[in-house]
Structures are given as structure tokens and as C-alpha cells.
Design brief:
The chain is mainly alpha-helical and 200 residues long. It has two domains: 1-36; 43-199, Cell wall hydrolase SleB, domain 1 (Arc Repressor Mutant, subunit A, Orthogonal Bundle). Helix content is 55%, strand content 8%. It has helices at residues 2-36, 45-56, 58-66, 85-99, 104-119, 127-131, 138-142, 151-162, and strands spanning 72-73, 164-165, 172-174, 189-193, 196-199. The strands form two sheets. A three-stranded antiparallel sheet has the order 3-5-4, with helices on one face. The protein has a two-stranded antiparallel ribbon with strand order 1-2. A hairpin with a 2-residue loop joins strand 4 and strand 5. Helix 2 (45-56) packs across helix 8 (151-162), helix 4 crosses helix 8 (151-162) and helix 5 crosses helix 8. The chain is elongated and about 70 Å long.
Length: 200
């Protein structure tokens, strides 16, 4: 009986260690892909995202983009950067976590703030680094970045990467009903979209 129990315990422990190893391997590969910025196909994801948006968006996506009345489309410096599929997912996850209950325009606006930071020399130079700056985003800090991504959040991420910016260049946003930090009083407010205020 004891021999069988020991064998069973060894099998369970061995299986658990194998699974932990697989998870670690996947995590290391994922982080390396995000930090290197390499795409699976070896081309910048911005181009891939544009192609995918053109192929899959159709009339609904076009109508949603046209609804961004104050949105400005600009050429982003991200065109020269290599973005991985993970970058789009990270951007979409932060959008979902920060603006899940906001209208589509508000979701694009939050994505635009992140893209604006990537392009601004005062901030890190990648989506991953910007979104994971200590304390920068509630979604990362509180773990809501792990929530399921809505179709709208993914579409909003693609639009922000393409250069749609309904904020007019904002680098910060907050919900005035919830924000308590004193730093927000030193920022110049550009616009308000949904429940968020956007500022530089």
C-alpha cells in the first residue's frame, strides 16, 4: 500500500513539475516576444494590423471610426517600429481594463494616450514598457489587464495604432469622479470623452 502511495505521489509531483515547466517556458517566450518586438511573420505589426483591419473590419468598423467626430488621424512614428501581436493584445487589454465601460470613442482615446506616450521621448519607447511603468495604469496595477478582451477593445487598439486620436494628443487621462492624486491639477485638460478627462 505504501509503495503504491509513493508511486502515485511521484507521478503527481512529476506531472505538476512538468506543467510548471511548460508554463514557465511559455511565459519566458511571451515576454521575449513582447520585448523584442518581433512579429511571427517578420514584418511590422502596424502593417499587419492595418491589413487585418481592412480585411476584417468592413462597414461596421468604418462606421465606428467615422463616429469619432473630433478624432484626428495622424501618421504615427510607430510605422518604423516592429510591433508584435502581443503589443496589440497588451494595448487591447489595457483599454479593456481602463475603459471597458466607455463608448468606443473613449476606448480609442485611451489607446491613443498610450500610443502618444510611446511616441513621446519623455516616456518609454514601446507599448509594453509604457503600459507596465510602475503605477502608470490601474488595469496593470490591479490586475484587470487579465480580464477577457472585448471585440470593441481590440478594434479600438487597432484604430489607435493606425493613428486615430480623438484626444488631440493627450498624454494623460483620468476619471474626475474617482481620481484623488494632486498631480491632475497641474495638467492642461484638452477634452472630455465619456467619464474620462484627457490632458497633456
Amino acid at each position: 500500500m505504501t509503495g503504491q502511495h509513493n508511486k502515485t505521489s511521484q507521478i503527481v509531483v512529476g506531472t505538476a513539475l512538468f506543467l510548471v515547466g511548460l508554463i514557465l517556458l511559455f511565459t519566458i517566450s511571451y515576454v521575449a516576444a513582447v520585448q523584442s518586438g518581433e512579429t511571427m511573420l517578420g514584418k511590422p505589426l502596424l502593417a499587419a494590423a492595418r491589413d487585418q483591419a481592412a480585411d476584417s473590419g468592413g462597414a461596421q468598423e468604418e462606421a465606428a471610426v467615422k463616429s469619432l467626430h473630433t478624432g484626428k488621424t495622424r501618421e504615427t512614428t510607430l510605422q518604423g517600429a516592429k510591433l508584435s501581436p502581443a503589443d496589440v493584445l497588451i494595448l487591447a487589454r489595457v483599454i479593456e481594463g481602463e475603459a471597458g465601460g466607455e463608448p468606443f470613442k473613449g476606448k480609442v482615446a485611451v489607446g491613443a494616450v498610450i500610443i502618444n506616450r510611446v511616441e513621446d521621448e519623455r516616456f518609454p519607447d514601446s507599448i509594453y514598457k509604457v503600459t507596465h511603468q510602475p503605477g502608470a495604469f490601474y488595469a496593470v496595477r490591479k490586475g484587470t489587464i487579465r480580464h477577457p478582451i472585448s471585440e470593441d477593445a481590440l478594434r479600438a487598439a487597432k484604430e489607435a495604432i493606425k493613428g486615430v486620436d480623438p484626444t488631440g494628443g493627450a498624454l494623460y487621462f483620468w476619471n474626475p469622479a474617482k481620481a484623488t492624486s494632486s498631480w491632475i491639477h497641474n495638467r492642461h485638460v484638452i477634452t472630455r470623452i465619456g467619464n474620462h478627462v484627457f490632458a497633456i
